[in-house]
Amino acid sequence: MEIIAHRGASGDFPENTLLAIEQALLQGADAIEIDVYAVEDELIVIHDPKLERTTNGSGTIYQHALSYLLQLDAGQGQRIPTLWQVLQLTHGKCWLNIELKGKNTAEPLLALLTKAEQQLGLDPAQLLVSSFNHHLLLQLQQACPALKLGALTASLQLNYARYVADLKFYSIHCDVNFIDQSLVDDAHALGLKAYVYTVDELEDIHAMQQLGVDGIFTNYPARSRVIASEHLT
Ligand code: G3P
Ligand code: MG
């Protein structure tokens, strides 16, 4: 079961910052999940469209110039990173799950992937792009068929694995409160990976191992790894 650092090692460090990502790498995470919005054709790494919870700014990301957003304090002196900075930091070290939020992310992402291929030698297959917006994922699939795509859901829909398999996506990303054995089994029978968010508690980690999920998003990568290693199935 892979350990995916949710917003970096966000349990102990400011979420979605380069510091949290560096710490997740130090903690031996298999992958890192980040949340991304488009502002002025740049992709920035932050979870909420509102600035108050995680930065010293106020209002929404769309009310401000990019230059203002990038100088805010995102905790412990960290800045809101760009996706380009995160790609540079993680390339060759772990795989990256880019969760697309907000609007107008497709074009800047495709442009950034081209830049990353040219300048870093990044293979799009090293990335997993996910979203609750499945229209957006389809758009990306048409533009870049090599991209691995993950369909996020916050509910337990009927025939969800079949639906995602028919879209020819790579994975289902489900809420820990809804995942069950039949969904995991259906996903695997259809050749899909099953990832679950957000899994921090001992009982949940063990339950996910029991279900045979492929990976968990956790805010505490090192601790979750230890808990999982104590309960190998
Ligand atoms: O990608 C998994 C998880 O991060 C989805 O929910 O709100 O934490 O971005 P959220
Ligand atoms: Mg997320």
What is the topological layout?
Layout (H helix, E strand, L loop, with lengths): L1 E5 L11 H9 L4 E9 L2 E4 L20 H4 L13 H8 L4 E6 L5 H15 L6 E5 L2 H10 L4 E6 L6 H7 L4 E5 L5 H9 L3 E5 L4 H10 L3 E4 L2 H9 L4
Parallel strand pairs: 1-2, 1-9, 2-4, 4-5, 5-6, 6-7, 7-8, 8-9
Antiparallel strand pairs: 2-3
Structure, briefly:
With 233 residues, the protein is of the alpha/beta class. It contains nine helices and nine strands.
Care to describe what's here?
This protein has 233 residues and is α/β, with parallel strands linked by helices. It has a single domain, classed as TIM Barrel (Alpha-Beta Barrel), CATH 3.20.20.190. It has nine helices and nine strands. The protein has helices at 18-26, 66-69, 83-90, 106-120, 134-143, 160-166, 181-189, 202-211, 221-229, and strands at residues 2-6, 31-39, 42-45, 95-100, 127-131, 148-153, 171-175, 193-197, 215-218. It has an eight-stranded parallel barrel, surrounded by six helices. Helix 5 (134-143) links the parallel strand 5 (127-131) and strand 6 (148-153). Helix 1 (18-26) runs parallel beside helix 3 (83-90) and helix 6 (160-166) runs parallel beside helix 7. The longest helix has 15 residues, at 106-120. The N and C termini lie close together (10 Å). The structure holds SN-glycerol-3-phosphate and magnesium ion (MG). SN-glycerol-3-phosphate binds next to strand 2.
Please identify the structural class as seen in this structure: alpha/beta
Bound molecules: SN-glycerol-3-phosphate, magnesium ion
What CATH architecture label applies?
Answer: Alpha-Beta Barrel
User: What's the average pLDDT?
Assistant: 97
Largest sheet: 8 strands, parallel, barrel
